[in-house]
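S1.2 Input.
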Amino acid sequence: MNHAPGRAGAAAKPPLPPDAVAAQAHRAGLSKEEINQLPILAWEGSVIIIQDERSLESALADLRSERIIGFDTETRPTFTKGQTAPPALVQLASATCVYLIQLTHVPFGPALAGFLSCPGNLKVGVAIHDDMKALNRHHPFTAAGVVDLAAMARQQGIQAQGLRTLAANLLGFRISKGAQCSNWENPALTQQQVRYAATDAWVGREIYIHLERRQAEGASLPSAGSGDLR
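S1.3 Output.
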């Protein structure tokens, strides 16, 4: 288990107040130019890099007590038409920590598959069903408690679909995508990769919390279980 430095990026400011982001969410959507003018924020809390089974079990034990878990995966890019690489990293964000599970060190298997099959923990992310299907090809499982943030946003009339545009329109900041096409199968992740991967999982959790708050205020959203992968 490797602990990355506590500050994974530049000092992050709190998201905009709910009233301010709500006003943005009702707009048709921020333009690319407007998004580029927003401040860049990154996760600055604890990051733990998982490289062995014992550390994975410890991480999953902690995550089982969480109701909402930000989820994402990263895959090494391929530059040959028709070729795809398997997921190399799974990111799981709790309220206080982001776990980065390197599948090059700890292959996807029963422990992590069992956790993703548990309906008691909500796994939230953008295009999350595609991630689950990619993992399923390496160890069959039935994902549960899976919520697609883009689908939730659409039901509120929010057309932004990607994580970056959802963060901009709902939370009032942007996230860096600089490390997206890097080699995620590297034995040791760079600090830029750690920052990027941890931030994506954290932002997904923050977006879900924002949308859930809007639901409590009367917006029409799907129930938490409606995103389950069958």
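S1.4 Remarks. Helices lie at 18-25, 32-36, 53-63, 110-116, 128-136, 149-154, 163-171, 191-216.
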